[in-house]
Amino acid sequence: MDNILSEEAAKVAPKILGWKLIRYHDGARLVGRIVETEAYDQSDAASHSYRGVTPRTKVMFGPSGFAYVYFTYGMHYCFNVVTGQEGHGSAVLIRALEPLEGIDSMEANRGRTDQAQLTNGPAKLCQALKINRDFNGHNLSKKPLVIAPGVPIDKAAIVRTTRIGISKDSHRLWRFYIKDNHFVSKL
DNA sequence: CGGCAGATACGCT
DNA sequence: GCGTATCTGCCGT
């Protein structure tokens, strides 16, 4: 899997659809299947790494397979998987999960029970899995937060579109999601 | 159900 | 200061 994550973000993003994110918390195991991703690269003005290394962005320039978690809009966390070679600033934003295990805990963490709204957005899934800034720089091959390969998604079942919520370089087709999946954040 | 405003901290100019 | 890789509730249709 390290081979895959060390590729460029735009290649990694579709490949990790179907992979699992596993969170161990309070004796529970919370598992979600990755159903929506976006690529960000230092060559792209929409990326935090575009301006180079800063205290915030330095993990994006580190080795692949680590977590880049940032805080935004004064109240939300977003979770990324660092990709590419060390020294190159890139990552894949995980935008949505399909809840598989520990759904009760996710509901408690989110403070709501409608399953379709549990993890269908980058900040929502962080809330559901209790991912916060403490996970910035965390090695994703270790508990309590692990990313694991799953069943690869057939290319014909992957939709490629523009990214959400950005104003620069918004023409790039760097958002990927599993076609017809019920837990994608937005069509 | 679609559109919009408000919440609210922080990194960077 | 300003803009933000967002979410929610509230409004009108």
Structural features:
globular, 4 helices, DNA-binding, 32% strand, alpha+beta, 187 residues, 14% helix
Characterise the protein shown here.
The model has no long low-confidence stretch (mean pLDDT 97). Strands 1, 2, 3, 4, 5, 6, 7, 8 and 9 form a nine-stranded antiparallel beta sheet that branches. This protein starts with a helix and ends in a 9-residue tail after the last strand. The protein is globular, with a radius of gyration of 15 Å. The chain has helices at 2-5, 9-15, 103-110, 122-128, and strands at 20-25, 28-41, 67-72, 76-82, 90-101, 141-142, 145-148, 158-161, 175-178. The chain has four helices and nine strands; from the N terminus they run ααβββββααββββ. It is 14% helix and 32% strand. It has 187 residues and is of the alpha+beta class. It binds a DNA duplex (13 and 13 nucleotides) through residues 38, 40, 46-48, 51, 54-56, 70-76, 78, 80, 93, 95, 121-124, 127, 163-167.
Short characterization:
The chain has helices at residues 2-5, 9-15, 103-110, 122-128; strands at 20-25, 28-41, 67-72, 76-82, 90-101, 141-142, 145-148, 158-161, 175-178. The protein has 187 residues and is α+β, with helices and mostly antiparallel strands.
Kindly report how far apart the N and C termini lie.
29 Å
- Please compute the radius of gyration using only Cα atoms: 15 Å
Mean pLDDT: 97
List the helices and strands in order: HHEEEEEHHEEEE
**Number of DSSP-assigned strands:** 9
Strand content: 25-35%
- Choose one word for the global shape: globular
Helicity level, as a percent range? 10-25%
